[in-house]
């Protein structure tokens, strides 16, 4: 009977580990610049948005968009009621428009009526209202008062092993979603497949990127924003990253080698970027590999990075969170440290599948460090404080048998577990509810405790039935061996740690 086969969706596996590129160093002619298919036409960025701040719609027919003089937002005449006898005043060149977002930012502490139009100067400079009375608003104001709209060029770049056939990711859909925020240009999406298993393929890759780097720098100018993704499989035993195929089977190299080769040509482009690593959690599980990854984030001066802990990570479960992340952090330019906890509530599937690690760069005493914070989905029955509760009783073998009365309160640990008050929970008690549990072994029914680890529940991520637990942040300090400022396309050197058994293994995987 024939069986169905499908592409591998998880980003883990087993591959042959090698200490460096295979074959002899290549001396090949520089490949031609990317063809028409790889080129992306970039239009100049319009200063103002084409979508209303309140209704998120455009203008057609008699609808007018009022452009804010303080930020890139616009508001439409459907959401902003300008009296008919005042429209001529509002359209005068010496009258400035002040949008609701700017007004909300300036009146956070002391509320004030919204007038919208001002003569000569804006409110922060002492401008006076140009119209009589306040303006009436229609619709719901959804934007955060601390949000602005991106006016700088945006680039989404995707480094992916062997092209889209090897790894299924949400990045193409995310790019399509983001492009609609920039109808007048200012947005570019580029995908960079890599195969760097041999000296020959490394040479081909680095030469090809020269044209792409020039294209990106031209688009970004000096103030553009980069949202980058790195999609790859990781070798399960060592956490090394796949680099391509050799004789039909994948081979893997160390984190530092792969990142220095793939990202090397983009050293200047990635400064200040946000990077999402769509790789399996074995990279986190091995301290040496995770340290190499964190060091690379600092070496390339990235502003922030996100990685996931699932052993068999499925990139598609990140869809909802990444869409919201792009909208709030890239488009609205909210601070990622403040916005990130609230984004986690948008996908319960993500929390059940993986923990999430946010890494942000910070400066202390003139040195750039990396602040590392882990978030884990928290549910009383399945994973309190992000600690997994096994689904089967080890004594009787029953599944889904844990009692729902699990809370033990810190204020008085002698009280009944189902008596709740305002005291914080210090531990949870789980008891098997199967009536015959332990009788075959002449034991009492199975029970166990889970103590609360250091950290706290995130208020912004709380839902009716679950929450997210934030572990205490740790600081990663840069090593003495850092990436030189002159790092360029030809710099493929890096740390080359040996496997744990000190030998190169020959495990392979077919995907």
Question: Which properties best describe this structure?
Answer:
alpha/beta; ten-stranded mixed beta sheet; three-stranded mixed beta sheet; 10 helices; about 20% helix; about 20% strand; globular
Overview of the structural elements:
The protein has 511 residues and is of the alpha/beta class. The protein has helices at 87-90, 100-106, 171-179, 199-220, 255-263, 282-285, 287-299, 319-331, 336-343, 348-353, and strands at residues 12-13, 16-17, 65-67, 74-76, 80-81, 95-97, 117-119, 128-129, 136-137, 154-161, 187-194, 225-231, 234-235, 241-246, 249-253, 274-278, 304-308, 356-364, 367-378, 407-409, 425-431, 447-451, 456-457, 467-470, 474-476. The strands form seven sheets. Strands 10, 11, 12, 16, 17, 18, 19, 23, 24 and 25 form a ten-stranded mixed β-sheet that branches. Strands 2-15-14 form a three-stranded mixed β-sheet. Strand 7 and strand 8 form a beta hairpin. Helix 3 (171-179) runs parallel beside helix 8 (319-331) and helix 8 (319-331) runs antiparallel to helix 9 (336-343). The longest helix is centred in the middle third of the chain and has 22 residues, at 199-220. The radius of gyration is 27 Å and the shape is globular. Residues 1-9, 26-46, 411-422 and 483-511 have low confidence and may be disordered.
